Amino acid sequence: MQIHISFDYELFFGNASGSVEKCMLEPTQQLIDIACKHNVPFIFFVDAGYLFQLKKYIHIETCKQDYDKITLQLNRLASLGHEIALHIHPHWEDCRFENNQWIIDTTRYKLADFTEKEVGEIVSKYHHAIKEITGKPCKSYRAGGWCIQPFESIRKALIENAIFVDSTVYYKGFHDSKAHFYDFTKAPDLCEWNFENDPCIENKTGMFKEIPVTADQIPPLFYWKLYLKMRLNPLVYKPVGDGNWLVDKKRIYKHFHTSTNHFACCDGFFASRLQFVLKDAEKQKKSKMMVLSHPKSMAPYSFNTLNKFIMSAKSKGHTFNTITNE
Ligand SMILES: [Zn+2]
Fold first, then answer.
1. What residues does the ion ligand 1 have nearby, CB within 5 Å?
2. 7 CA distance to ligand 1 centroid (A)?
3. What is the CA(109)–ligand 1 centre distance, in A?
4. Where are the alpha helices (DSSP H) in 171-286?
5. CATH numeric code, 2-320
6. How far apart are CA 178 and CA 106, in angstroms?
7. What are the tens digits of pLDDT across the range 197-226?
8. What predicted TM-score, i.e. pTM, was given to this entire model?
9. How is the chain split into domains, by residue range?
10. What is the pLDDT of residues 281-299, one digit of tens each?
C-alpha cells in the first residue's frame, strides 16, 4: 500500500490564531526529524492565504520575521523531498494584523462565499504566494475546512493554475455549520478516482483526480477517552499549537453519543486510530491510505505514535510517498 501522510500547515482560526513558532515551525521541525529518521516524505498543504497576508504586512517587523522563518522552513521541506501543496482558506481576505496579532474574521470562510471572479483571483494570487517562496508550482490542492463545494468556480481556477489533483474528500464526510459546508455522502468508497465537475462523482474521463483522505468511523468511546486523557495527562496529549480551533459546539457534543464519520489523522489522541485504519485498509486490500493532520495539533503522544506507525507499516512492506512522486 502507498501511504500518504499529509499535514495542513496553518495557524488556528478561532478567537486566537496562535504563534508561528508553536503552530507551524516547532511541530514541523519535529516532523522533519521523524521523516529523516525513517527516510520518508510527507505532504504539506500550505495555507497560502496566510502567506499572502503576511507578505501584505511585511512592513511590520513581526510579520517580516514570521515570513522569513516560514520561507526558510518551506524551502527546507522542499529540499528534503517533501511535497508543498496548495491549501486555501479564503477568509484571510478579511483578516487584519492589529496590535501585534491577527484579527480573524471567518464570515466568508469558504470559496463558495466569494464570486467566481474573486475565486479565480484568490486561487491564483495565493498559489503565487507559495511559488514566490519555493520557486515551484503546486500540483495538488486541498480545500480549507474541506469546503470544496460547489466546485464549479474552483474548477476553473484550478485549471488556470494547472492543478489537477485534489485531496479534500473523505468517505461519508458531512458538515453544515455557520462557517462550513461540505457533503461527501455521495462520494465513492475508493482509494482514488477521476472526476470532472463534482469531486464526489467519479468520471473515468475527467481531467481531475481525487485522492480522498482515508475515512475512519469513530465510536463515542474514543471521545470520552480523549477527554479524560487531555484532562489527566495534558503534557502528553495536549496539542503543541497555542491557538484556538474554530469550533462547532453542536458537532462536538454529538461525538460523545454517536459514531461519527471522521478520517485517518494523527492529531493528538487521534493518532491512536492509525493502526485500526491501516488494518482495515489492509483487510479491504486498499491500494492507498491518506492521513490528514496538522502540525499545530500534534502532541507529544502523536509524534511518538506516528514514529511507531511508520516503523510498523514499513516493516509490513507498505511505502510512504508524496502525491507528485507517485
Ligand atoms: Zn486548513
1. 8, 10, 144
2. 9
3. 11
4. 220-232, 234-237, 249-255, 274-283
5. 3.20.20.370
6. 9
7. 999 999 999 999 999 999 999 999 999 999
8. 0.97
9. 2-320
10. 999 999 999 999 999 999 9
